[in-house]
Amino acid sequence: MILSALLTSVGINLGLCFLFFTLYSILRKQPGNVNVYAPRLVAEGKSPRTNHFNLDRLLPSASWVTRAWHPSEEELLSISGLDAVVFMRIFIFSLRVFAFAGIIGVFILLPINYLGNQLSIDFSDLPNKSLDSFSISNVDNGSNRLWIHFSAGYVFTGVTLIISFDLYEGYGFTSLLLMFSLEWSAVFFIEYSYISAKRIACFNSSTPQPHQFTILVSGIPVSSGRRVGESVESFFNEYHPSTYLSHTVVRRTSKLQRIIDDGEKLYRRLGHLKSKKHTQQRFRRDGFLGLSGRRVDLLDQYEKKLEDLEDNLRIEQSLLAGEEVRAAFVSFKSRIGAAVALHVQQGVDPTEWVTEQAPEPQDVYWPFFSASFLKRWICKLVVVVAYILLTVSFLIPVVIVQGLTHLDQLEIWFPFLKGVLTITFVSQVITGYLPNLILQLFLSLVPPIMIVFSSMQGYISFSEIQKSACTKMLWFTIWNIFFANVLSGSVLYQVNIILEPKEIPKILAEVVPAQASFFIAYVVTSGWTSLSSEIFRMFPLICSFVKQNFTGHDDEEFQVPSIPYHKEIPSILFFGLLGVTYFFLAPLIIPFILVYFCLAYIVYRSQLLNVYAPKYETGGKFWPIVHNSTIFSLVLMHIIAIGIFGLKKLPLASSLTIPLPVLTLIFNEYCRKRFLPIFSGYSVECLINRDRQDRSDPTMVEFRDKLLTAYQDPALKSIQYSGSIGRLKSPLLHSAVA
């Protein structure tokens, strides 16, 4: 890609960003859009809907930036939970790292690359020159200037790891920054430390939660003539007599849940109709889109359907009352009692009385229990095969995208376009903007598929499903967007990687720098523009407009969304991988990545405060995924560095780079031993201290009473539709009587 094509891509995306941000600053002030741009505030009653007109509503402003910047991290923690804080710490960590990398890359490495003589450069025709002129490819083979790149790799690695580590621990290690070879380690160390300390602090300050006292027991042996509940009560009364409190047997309720979902939708529609002032809106024709057919009273129609659903639900509940699963949620009187039962094998047979930590009640994925063990085992195999097939099939758009970046290939494929491709602006749009747009459109289809895959694998909670989908999406992105793009130019490269693993550094050193221009354009298109579209919320805005103007009931299915971590975190980490990998290869990418992280910090802060509300809390368990991705990125950078110094006829630098991946992996193993257990559970010290505090808490009696029914399947609770229409926004299940 030539420089003018990149500038064209940057110009188009800057224009789109400016347009989206301007429209957002105006549309968010309109009363009719409050459900789109501030659904969380509406649900919390903090966003009054006023129809009072003033001129300021029609003028763009940046006041939302100030409001997003103002809240402290502690305020964000109280509003959105630890997961949101960990999510925002990814941006803080990245800004620290790439601000440092930008200083070295832009002011030291970039001039060295540009002033090299390996590639022929005509300064008089700079706009039509390849961006390779700004990469390490332009540095002369065997040049002593390459030692500056070698030193930069050591410095960058040390700084990153120390910052990350400190996020785990909660204190600084600035003295380690003086150690030239460990500076990148410092950054990562700081971050890891801080997050770990924050997780423990949140646990110590939290109110008693049902999942802290509860475990899930599966594989319950049941003798002839006994029920699952009797076996559970007999076993835990015998072996945990001082700590056992109660249990809730799990039942298969997938049929009931479908009926309840239909009832919830009808309930909201009925409540919406009764809130209308004009009775004319109650009547509509029952034909196509309400334009044909006989005129009916929707209020009577919905009430009759609700009565039928209620009768059907009672019948199904009575039929399914005895359909037990050999699993139960078992609650204990103390946290330490639950922890002992969780970590100690309960029966002689390890396949019986299997224990695992219970999720939060609202986090339980109830369909998990409706599938048999054999079905779940088969589904796991199906998911593996489907994931591989999806990964392979995604190579098709990758090949198409790579073809668009090379006009000579495009002219061979489509000879009739030769005349059009000679137009300068058209060729710049096709090579600089269109490939990344196509790739982004295809990639946007993948996150929902990953959620489906993870839900089939047998996770008992929505949070575990989302974590699994996040990991799948991350490695899918790394393989298909990074490796598939850099290796798609030659089948020989792909074969050599499989047949000659020793050649991996050399192959990557040859192909990765050549794709620097493509990934710079990718950061601009998929990074900058995606952030502006995230805050503009085009799809929810269109849906709201259609409902308000064509269906007449925008509020009836109003729900506060939760942030899709499985989609956002992999994208953020991939931009981090690009920055780490190209830090010394093509430092021109660093300013574009810095702009992305600065914008992302403000945009996602605003979204967390106004749009997204947490549905469950993992306690910061997404951070180990961030850690693993960062370690992988560093090792990948080291492998490429080993190969590039070899290609540049500097074997000594190549040999001296070998300790870097080894030291990074040793550091990774230390972090796994030091911090990962904190994310798997809590220590005896923490648990017993919290239990001692509960002894003087007068609310614990009431809490234990609620704990008895906390894990009752919502589908088995009795639901009273009649007389509850007045509470327009309250879910039916929450008002049910157990």
Describe the structure in your own words.
By secondary structure, this protein is mainly alpha-helical. The chain contains 32 helices and 6 strands. It has helices at residues 3-27, 34-37, 39-43, 63-69, 73-80, 82-114, 146-169, 185-205, 228-239, 254-275, 298-320, 335-343, 373-393, 395-404, 407-413, 418-421, 424-432, 434-443, 446-455, 462-487, 491-499, 504-511, 516-536, 538-551, 565-581, 589-610, 623-647, 651-657, 659-674, 676-680, 684-695, 700-707; strands at 214-218, 244-251, 283-285, 295-297, 324-332, 354-357. The strands form 2 sheets. Strands 2-5-1-6 form a 4-stranded antiparallel β-sheet, with helices on one face. A two-stranded antiparallel sheet has the order 3-4. It starts with a helix and ends in a 31-residue tail after the last helix. Residues 168-182 and 724-738 have low confidence and may be disordered.
Task: Summarize the SSE layout with pairings.
Elements: H1 3-27, H2 34-37, H3 39-43, H4 63-69, H5 73-80, H6 82-114, H7 146-169, H8 185-205, E1 214-218, H9 228-239, E2 244-251, H10 254-275, E3 283-285, E4 295-297, H11 298-320, E5 324-332, H12 335-343, E6 354-357, H13 373-393, H14 395-404, H15 407-413, H16 418-421, H17 424-432, H18 434-443, H19 446-455, H20 462-487, H21 491-499, H22 504-511, H23 516-536, H24 538-551, H25 565-581, H26 589-610, H27 623-647, H28 651-657, H29 659-674, H30 676-680, H31 684-695, H32 700-707
Antiparallel strand pairs: 1-5, 1-6, 2-5, 3-4
